[in-house]
Amino acid sequence: MSPAGNAGLEGLLLVDKPAGPTSHDIVAWVRRATGQRRVGHTGTLDPPASGLLVLALGRATRLIRFLPAAPKIYEGSIALGLTTVTDDLSGEVLERSADPLPGFDAVREAARAFLGLQSQVPPAVSARKVGGERLYRLARQGRFVEAPPSEIEVYRFELLPGTEEGRIAFRADVSTGTYIRSLARDLGARLGCGAALAELRRTAIGPFELASAVAPPEKGQSEWKPPTTIPLDRIPLTLPATEIGPGDLDRYAHGTAVPAPPGIAGWVRVVSAEGHLLGLGEVVEGLLTPRVVLIDPAG
Question: Would residue 25 show up in a list of annotated catalytic residues for this protein?
Fold first, then answer.
């Protein structure tokens, strides 16, 4: 199938991002290979990281900001005995420890302190904004700025014996907004030897799992059709559903408020009698005002 034939492709696409390209690279490759111009991501991975990337295609791009924040699961390894500019092994080494590295039991014990709710300072080279500027852009100018801490939660931080000296394998379940690079950095600081993230692979985001992901098209590929996408009706939005009848469909499609069922207030998913997603709306004082319209007006 030619890219033009894929232009109507839409929904959520689960991609297994390889290490190396940026998340924006993957978006550009999918856009080129499918011919679908509207492609966006629901959250990035750093270039050295691999694993699950959730893309939105077509009308699904309008729903990205309504996807609920979901825990994320990672696996990878941490290198002990050094600190870097980026808090992973892609950055310039700032310091190496000359002391013996702590044993596995000591590292595992230190990791327990990172379970639960906490404040975390993002890496000095990251997409976090300070004063309207991305930290990585400031870093390119030689300006390393510390971002204010964010509230995060670590649900699991399981360490496994490493396969080589100074490397510790891990699995982590964390809240959205958590930087695993910062987790590695802070673990090294607690141990007193320094540490940096060595490898990272994302295996799940909420209900989405890496096992269902597909390899992306290659750079420059001009013809590619993913085997499956998650259709609009199955996108896991947590808003309550409100049905509108056939007589109100055209008014809704034109962006005109329609009567809402009694007892409903706030943001809702707007669905047809058959359960198809028509868009999103806001109910105030018995009127449903369209906020996102996914259907075309009749005629």
Answer: no
